[in-house]
Structures are given as structure tokens and as C-alpha cells.
Specification:
- There is one protein chain.
- It is built from 12 helices and 11 strands.
- It has a 7-stranded mixed sheet, sandwiched between helices.
- The protein has 2 domains: 66 residues, Helicase, Ruva Protein, domain 3 (Orthogonal Bundle), CATH 1.10.8; 186 residues, Rossmann fold (3-Layer(aba) Sandwich), CATH 3.40.50.
- The chain is of the alpha/beta class.
- Bound molecules: S-adenosylmethionine.
- The site of S-adenosylmethionine (SAM) has 21 residues, from helix 6, strand 6 and helix 10.
Length: 282
């Protein structure tokens, strides 16, 4: 029996809506478009076309995954970030639109030649910067080798592989050299907040990518304590932070000699990025 895309979409909506509410429509469209092998925007003009049994099977399988609260990006295997497609698996954080604020701020005024990305995950930050800055080279650090493997695949896909080195390291532990830019979106959710987070995040993304446990600030403490050693003389640090962490992280860096912190808001007007310049040598 053949079915049209329209029929499949409405069947998918009936499945997803009771569990997902408002996001059901967007998700069902994304999954159906992926099963057919077209961009989501093209679905509207193919609604009356019949689809094959292989598409129906794949769509049903993906709906079942979504009903288990697996994020759409993991099911379809990609996420768009700063206009490029990144491979996403359960081994990495799904790149967030908030993190684009970090990219925007860096590219506004800076053209670093050497970049250190601490906690690279999918590589979305460093690989975006390398794509935008053709003369730059970078080091991508993660404690998770599985995450580094995903970042490596993304570097290949984006054709920047020859300008990036991947290092498995507990923050700075296995890192040498000095960098014009140190950038990080470290795990920053508190242990308590993890209990209240939505299942898509809590059950499907790596816990080590989300929280350093405790008060959520340990990664910043480590980065602040070592950053000066790894920063070029006129270097810069850009960090993503939780919306309510600006004052605490600013204090942590101030205590290590970074007096010149600046906070930048995201599109929702929430504190999202901190910028520090290398301390001036007396
Ligand atoms: C919030 S995710 C950010 C991923 C990616 N940079 C992004 O913005 O989407 C934090 C990353 O830090 C890594 N990480 C956690 N603890 C680490 C440690 N001790 N040393 C290095 N990386 C660590 C995690 O594996 C994860 O990939």
C-alpha cells in the first residue's frame, strides 16, 4: 500500500503530539524530510507525492526513537551551526544556537592565528572559526576520545583537517604552547539542575558534556588557574557561561589576575559569553 507524504506527516503528528506537544510538528517534518532524503523546506511541495515502503519503514523507526525522547539531531545525525552541517552522535553535545553568540563575538573584532578549544565536543566552535579564518590553526581538546573522533570526522567534512590537531587531555594537562585565543564552552550545569533538565538532554547527551557536578563552576576554576600560561601576550579568552553565572565566573578569573572581564548577552538577552584579555605584564 502506498501513502503520500501528507498522510505520513499527519500519522506522525498523531504519534508525537501527545508526548512532545508544540515541537511535534517541526520534529515530524524534519524526520519525514530526512527519511525521504530532501531538505525540510522542500516537504511542502512534495506533500501529495507517494513515498516508498523503505521511506515509511525508516520514518516509523525514527518516530519510535523520537518517542524515546532522543533528540532529532541525533536521529538524523546532523545539526546546522553557523551555516554549516556538523555530524552529531550521542557522544557529543548537540551544538546550541546560544553558542553562536561566542562565534559572533570572536569574529567581530578578532582574527586569531592560533586557537585552543577546550572541550571541543563536535568541534563546532573551533572548526567554525577555522572555516571562517583561513590563516588560523587550532588545537581541539577533549577528555572524551569518542567526542574527538566525531570532531575529526567534522574536520574532514569541512576540509580544515590540515589546520587542526586533536588532543585527548584533561583540560590543559597534555597541552603545550601559547595561543592567541583560548575558547571554551565547558560543562556548566549544576548537579542539582541536572535533576530537572528535559529528558532529551539528561538521557541522551553525555553527562560529562553537561555538568562538572557540584556548583557547575569547576571547569572555569581550572581554566582560570592555568590560562595565563597558555595565552599569548596579547591573547584573548572567550567562554560560554550559564545565564546566571557571569558574576561568579568573573570573580574566579579576577582572582587569577584577569581584571578586564566583559559580559556579552545572547539573542534572548541573557548573559552568555565572557571575554578576558591577557593580563598586562608590569
Ligand atoms: C558543553 S560541551 C561543549 C562541546 C562543544 N564545544 C560545543 O560548544 O558544542 C563540553 C565538552 O567538554 C568536554 N569535557 C568535559 N570534561 C573535560 C575535561 N576534564 N577535559 C577536557 N574536556 C572535557 C566534554 O567531553 C564536552 O565535549
Amino acid at each position: 500500500m502506498t501513502q503520500t507524504a501528507q498522510e505520513l506527516l499527519s500519522w506522525g503528528l498523531d504519534q508525537l503530539t501527545p508526548v512532545l506537544g508544540d515541537t511535534a510538528r517541526t520534529d515530524a517534518r524534519s524526520l519525514l524530510a530526512h527519511a525521504i532524503g530532501i531538505e525540510r523546506g522542500m516537504l511542502s511541495i512534495q506533500m501529495l507525492d507517494s513515498v516508498g515502503s523503505d521511506v515509511i519503514e525508516q520514518y516509523k523507526k525514527m518516530l519510535a526513537q523520537r518517542l524515546q525522547r532522543q533528540p532529532v539531531s541525533q536521529i538524523i545525525g546532523v545539526r546546522e551551526f553557523w551555516g554549516r552541517r556538523f555530524i552529531v552522535t550521542p557522544d557529543v553535545l548537540d551544538p546550541r544556537p546560544d553558542t553562536e553568540t561566542l562565534i559572533e563575538e570572536i569574529l567581530k573584532e578578532h582574527a586569531p592565528k592560533t586557537i585552543l578549544d577546550l572541550g571541543t565536543g563536535s568541534g563546532c566552535i573551533l572548526l567554525t572559526l577555522l572555516s571562517e579564518l583561513p590563516e588560523a590553526t587550532g588545537v581541539a581538546v577533549d577528555l572524551s576520545q569518542d567526542a574527538l573522533d566525531v570532531a575529526n570526522d567534522n574536520a574532514n567534512a569541512l576540509d580544515v583537517k590540515d589546520r587542526v590537531k586533536f588532543v585527548q587531555s584533561d583540560w590543559f594537562q597534555n597541552i603545550d604552547g601559547q595561543f592567541d585565543l583560548i575558547v571554551s564552552n565547558p560543562p556548566y550545569i549544576t548537579a542539582t539542575a541536572m535533576d530537572e533538565i528535559e529528558p532529551e538532554v539528561r538521557d541522551w547527551e553525555p553527562r560529562m558534556a553537561l555538568t562538572p557536578e557540584g556548583d557547575g563552576l569547576d571547569a572555569y576554576r581550572i581554566i582560570a588557574s592555568k590560562a595565563e600560561t597558555y595565552l599569548s601576550r596579547n591573547g584573548h579568552i572567550f567562554l560560554e557561561i550559564g545565564w546566571d553565572q557571569a558574576a561568579a565566573v568573573m570573580d574566579i578569573f579576577k582572582a587569577k589576575g584577569f581584571e578586564n572581564g566583559r559580559c556579552i548577552q545572547d539573542l534572548a538577552n541573557k548573559d552568555r559569553v565572557l571575554h578576558f584579555c591577557a593580563p598586562k605584564i608590569a
